[in-house]
Structure formats: C-alpha cells, structure tokens
C-alpha cells in the first residue's frame, strides 16, 4: 500500500515539474490539429467548387461560343475519350477523330452524326512514320474553328505487364502513340487557337501518375508526361486565352470488373469531367476519385480524431 502511495506521490511531483512541457505539447497539438482542420475545410470547399457548383449553376454560355465549333480527339479508341467526345457532341461541337485505325471509330462517327447532328470526320495517321501524318492533319484542320483538343493516353494492356516483357518495338510504338502523337497534335492545333485567342486543351491521362502501380511502368510514365505537358502548356499559353486541363482519372468501368461509385462508367465519368472544363486546370474530373486522392474522409478524420484524443489525455494527466 505504501508503495502505491509512494508511486502516486512520485507521479504527482513529476507531473507538476513537467506541467509546462505538457502545456507546450498541448499547444503544439492544438495548432497542428487546427492546421489539419483548415486543410480539410479547404479540400471540402475545393470539391464543392470544382465538382458540384458547375453542375448546379447555369452555364456561362455555350461551349461553341466559349471555345470553338470543332474538337480534335486523339485516342478515341479509349472508352473515356469516346465518352468525352459524345459529351462535346451533345453541346453541338463537331468532332475530328485522329486514329491509326479508322475502324476503331467508325461506329462512333456514325452514332454522333445521327444522334446529335454534328459534323464528324476521321483522319488516319501513323505517328511512327516521322512527318508523314503532318500533311493530312493540317488539311483536316484547315478552315475549321478548332476550339478543343483532347488527348487520351492508352490503357496499354488489360493486365499488368513488366517492362521487360514488352518487346522493344512495342515500347517504341507506345511512346509514339502516347507521347509523340499528343505533342505533335498539340503543335499543329495550338497556332489556330492562339490566333483566335480562345480554345481548350484537355489531356486525359491516369491516376497512376500520382500512384504508380506494379506492372504499369509505361502507363505511369506516359500519364506523368501528359500531366506535366499540361502544366507546361498552361504556363506558356494561359495568357493567350487558352484553357489547359489535365484530367487524371482513377479506375472506371472499362478498366474494372464492375461499375461502382469509385469505378464509374465512361459516360458518367465524362459527364462529370466536362463540367470541370474552365474551372480546374488539374483534377481527377470525378469527385469520388478526388476523395481517393486526398483521402479526406478517412485519413484526415483519423488524424484529427487521434490528435484530439491526445490533447484530451494530456489535459487529464495535468489534473
């Protein structure tokens, strides 16, 4: 019993001598928690501003008036790019598809023309042939009010594959399709946008540029390139009336086994993504994916909860 009393007295003496340190630690914890709360509030406001307000408030005018009457779509064989082109067509934007294989967009061309009454055309171009595709591309762009350029990275393979398992020529082909093509098409489209003082460049890459995945080395690299390419274009051309956006979606139904909140269909994703056009220069385009990036409702909440527990416990020890 005496030992217990002695321990209690010893602990009380130590607590008194360290009370100032406890108060300092409690203050630091409170400041850290407050900073986290501010970050959480900022992220919540960002989600509302980017993903909800544009869908709730009236549009600032037709897309054709704000940017132009035609859109150039590269990578339309990807479901997300095809869905994005459909969203543009719904807004009266005519579509030019650039592809290496015209058969991959034949059905899309017919569907958009018949359903939305917009003009469509297809340019077949192989970007592994040096400057060969430049002439047909310039001919297709000539005389048109190009207001949109949409580049989409390819989902290189359905299943993860090590870089060493990809043939050398396969690597070169992927670089040409995902890096060379996006850069060259932007080079051909931008002069007209700069001359008119308006336009939008949308580069659709992948969330792997934020979180690399095993077996996805090329996809991660190409997604990172498009993301930084978008930032560089924005830095150079935003003062010339051109809006540049980097879309970094995570999984959708086309790359997942089934549709869900965090794996939307390409159509749902494109409908959300196009509402962020002119609002955010770099976004996932879909609010559940934004929550995945920031982990707002999980990690931030847990941080705050544990920090407040620590503060309350420190105060209890001071009593």
TrEMBL record:
Which residue spans traverse the membrane? none
- State the source organism's domain of life: Eukaryota
The main location is mitochondrion
Q: Where's it found, cell-wise? A: Mitochondrion
UniProt keywords, alphabetically: Mitochondrion, NADP
Q: Determine if Transcription is one of this entry's keywords.
A: no
**Which GO cellular component does the record give, naming just one?**
mitochondrion
Task: Respond yes or no to whether keyword Hydrolase is given for this record.
Answer: no
* Protein family according to the UniProt entry: Belongs to the short-chain dehydrogenases/reductases (SDR) family. 17-beta-HSD 3 subfamily.
Q: What is this protein called?
A: Hydroxysteroid dehydrogenase like 1
């Amino acid at each position: 019993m005496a030992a217990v009393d002695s321990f209690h007295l010893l602990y009380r003496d130590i607590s008194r001598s360290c009370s100032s340190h406890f108060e300092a630690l409690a203050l630091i914890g409170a400041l850290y928690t407050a900073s986290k709360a501010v970050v959480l509030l900022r992220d919540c406001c960002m989600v509302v501003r980017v993903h909800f307000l544009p869908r709730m408030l009236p549009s600032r005018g037709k897309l054709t008036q704000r940017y132009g009457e035609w859109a150039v779509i590269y990578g339309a064989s990807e479901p997300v790019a095809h869905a994005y082109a459909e969203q543009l067509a719904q807004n009266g934007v005519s579509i030019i598809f650039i592809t290496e294989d015209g058969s991959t967009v034949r059905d899309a061309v017919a569907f958009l023309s018949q359903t939305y009454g917009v003009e469509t055309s297809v340019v077949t171009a192989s970007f592994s042939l040096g400057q060969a595709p430049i002439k047909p591309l310039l001919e297709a762009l000539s005389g048109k009010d190009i207001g949109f350029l949409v580049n989409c990275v390819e989902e290189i393979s359905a299943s993860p594959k090590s870089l060493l398992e990809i043939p050398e020529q396969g690597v070169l082909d992927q670089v040409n399709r995902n890096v060379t093509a996006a850069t060259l098409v932007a080079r051909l489209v931008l002069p007209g946008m700069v001359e008119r003082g308006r336009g939008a460049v949308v580069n659709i890459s992948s969330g792997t540029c934020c979180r690399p995945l095993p077996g996805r080395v090329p996809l991660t690299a190409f997604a990172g390139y498009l993301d930084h390419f978008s930032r560089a274009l924005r830095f150079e051309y935003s003062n010339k009336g051109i809006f540049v956006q980097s879309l970094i979606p995570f999984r959708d139904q086309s790359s997942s086994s089934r549709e869900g909140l965090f794996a939307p269909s390409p159509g749902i994703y494109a409908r959300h993504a196009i509402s962020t056009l002119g609002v955010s220069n770099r976004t996932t385009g879909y609010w559940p994916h934004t929550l995945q990036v920031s982990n707002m409702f999980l990690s931030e909440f847990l941080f705050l909860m544990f920090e407040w527990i620590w503060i309350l416990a420190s105060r209890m020890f001071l009593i």
